[in-house]
Amino acid sequence: RILSGQDLWAQGYSEPGSGSDLASLSMRAVRDGDHYVLNGSKIWSTLGHHATRMFALVRTDDTGRKQQGITFLLIDRTAPGITLKPIISICGTHEFNQVFFDDVRVPVADRVGEEGQGWTIAKYLLEFERGGSFAGGLLRALYARLHRMADAPGPDGTRALDDPLFVARFAEIGTDIDANDMLELTALSAVQSGGNPGSVPSSVMKIERSRIRQAITELGAQILGPEALRWYPERPLHDLPPQDAVAEDRLVAPAVYLNARSQSIFGGSNEIQLEIIARELLG
Ligand SMILES: Cc1cc2nc3c(=O)[nH]c(=O)nc-3n(C[C@H](O)[C@H](O)[C@H](O)COP(=O)(O)OP(=O)(O)OC[C@H]3O[C@@H](n4cnc5c(N)ncnc54)[C@H](O)[C@@H]3O)c2cc1C
Q1: How far is the CA of 271 from the CAs of 181, 241, 251, 267, 278, in angstroms?
Q2: Using 50, 70 and 90 to split pLDDT, how confident is the model at 90?
Q3: Ligand 1: distance of its center to the CA of 89 in Å?
Q4: Which of 46, 194, 156, 40 lies closest to 102 in space, CA to CA?
Q5: Phi and psi at residue 163, in whole multiples of 5°?
Q6: Is the CB of 52 under 6 A from ligand 1?
Q7: Helices (DSSP H) in the chain: which residue ranges?
Q8: Are 74 and 53 in contact (CB under 8 A)?
Q9: Domains defined along the chain, listed by start
Q10: Do the beta carbons of residue 71 and residue 118 sit within 8 Å?
Q11: 283 vs 275 pLDDT, higher one
Q12: Mean pLDDT for the chain?
């Protein structure tokens, strides 16, 4: 159903007050016969308003270590008792939501693993979220767009590519994209042969991708100069008007720049990735 597009899944991990410190999550799931009854709320649920399903971490026990009382459930997003409040992002788009659960009934059969195993399951899944895909193609497309903008004369007739400082930074990012490709290919070979990416490589890739994407979009906004400060209420992020390519690139550059700020936050902030790397490598 995922492949056919019938189902879109939202991720229900974060809660107000439980982001980096995810294990403190408090959304309750209380057993009632062959169902759990859910009360609480999840936040930053990306595309939750389009989702038909949600995988979520819920609290089934609050005695003992906080990680041990967490359970992993698969939820029908359209079930009675679920309501959504849209959250508009800094670039003006409706991408995420706060999702409220009021006495929502979820069959025990829709639990993954045993009660209390949710933390281990989520950590395994996060490895794939951070390191189980190939971002190289997207980064190269953004880099090509940046080159197109830098090669075209701006309103004052000058080209960014004639500025040696710009060219040095541009080249540095190109080298980072090549290095990131190598990291991603190594991780993907591990996945191809049935393994998992590994938590340290996943965290390194998560940091690198966000750094590169933010660097590309920063240079894009820099090319625009003060024009990047102009705010168009309906400035498109994805739906481009039928104009020539460079004009389109310039039109979306500020929104794309703002959108890329989130790269170092979602999937676990970059500071938390550094902590994971330090803990695993330095003991
Ligand atoms: C675009 C976007 C989409 C998202 N989509 C989803 C989604 O679909 N589902 C979902 O469940 N969540 C989603 N999230 C939430 C995301 O996982 C959290 O935002 C993230 O884990 C950080 O949590 P927080 O926002 O509560 O920040 P906080 O945890 O409050 O962190 C604030 C700052 O403090 C720093 N910090 C916190 N703790 C430490 C520490 N121990 N050491 C050093 N620095 C620290 C952080 O790095 C950060 O800079 C999304 C977030 C964004 C931005």
Answers
A1: 22, 37, 32, 11, 11
A2: confident
A3: 15
A4: 40
A5: -95, 115
A6: no
A7: 118-131, 136-151, 164-192, 199-224, 245-260, 270-282
A8: yes
A9: 9-116 (2.40.110.10), 125-282 (1.20.140.10)
A10: yes
A11: 275
A12: 93
